[in-house]
Design a protein that fits this description.
Two copies of one chain form a homodimer.
Chain A lengths: L7 E7 L5 E2 L1 H13 L2 H7 L4 H15 L4 E3 L9 E3 L1 H20 L1 H7 L7
Antiparallel strand pairs in A: 1-2, 3-4
Chain lengths: ~120, ~120
């Protein structure tokens, strides 16, 4: 892993029903959107297919609506794409992360000011 | 675990040097401040003493300054307290969490609107 140059934030949303949505699930939605397949997205993220399926099922349950539509053709063979609900969640999460970082730049800078001797 | 009524945020700061500061370390600083002892803080959080010591050492390294001052008297027997650096980090983290939640209330509400049939 390369070291960061600037401080960053990793944000997890703790949902009212007990579910969680954070960087891992956001990256999975992004990868499915980009690659058109849960299987390819899992491979891209170094995640097993069963693990990716489990995360998709958790999201479907937590948000009370399907997030992924899979076409016919075996285990993800026909490809998968995000529903409008998933696109909405993806956009909201991205906005939330960008806004949190933007609103806290000064605070983060004060936390990470250069130390003498480094 | 009880279920949340409102959505919340769990925020981790990813520091430039590769370190991380999030809810767990913040809770440890809070508990040491409240209880005056790493040992009591660890017990309060259901954490082992070696684990708590390890987290304190990580923070000392990541922020380049001691965060905890331990008085003489065996393994934490004389008590411990936060340094000014630690108090500063604690305040910054709390501000950052509060601000992120405040600035994103509308976004979070739109993510967690009640679903019909629930």
């Amino acid at each position: 892993m390369t070291k960061r140059e600037k401080p960053g934030l990793s944000i997890r949303i703790d949902l009212p029903g007990g579910g969680r949505f954070g960087p891992g699930k956001a990256a999975l939605l992004d990868a499915i959107a980009d690659l058109g397949s849960i299987n390819k997205a899992a491979t891209h993220l170094g995640m097993s297919y069963p693990r990716a399926k489990k995360l998709v099922e958790e999201m479907n349950r937590d948000f009370g609506a399907p997030l992924i539509i899979s076409a016919q053709g075996g285990a993800d063979g026909g490809g998968s794409r995000l529903t409008e609900t998933a696109e909405n969640i993806r956009n909201i999460y991205r906005d939330l992360c960008n806004r949190s970082l933007a609103h806290n730049k000064a605070l983060l800078a004060s936390l990470c000011r250069p130390k003498s001797g480094d």
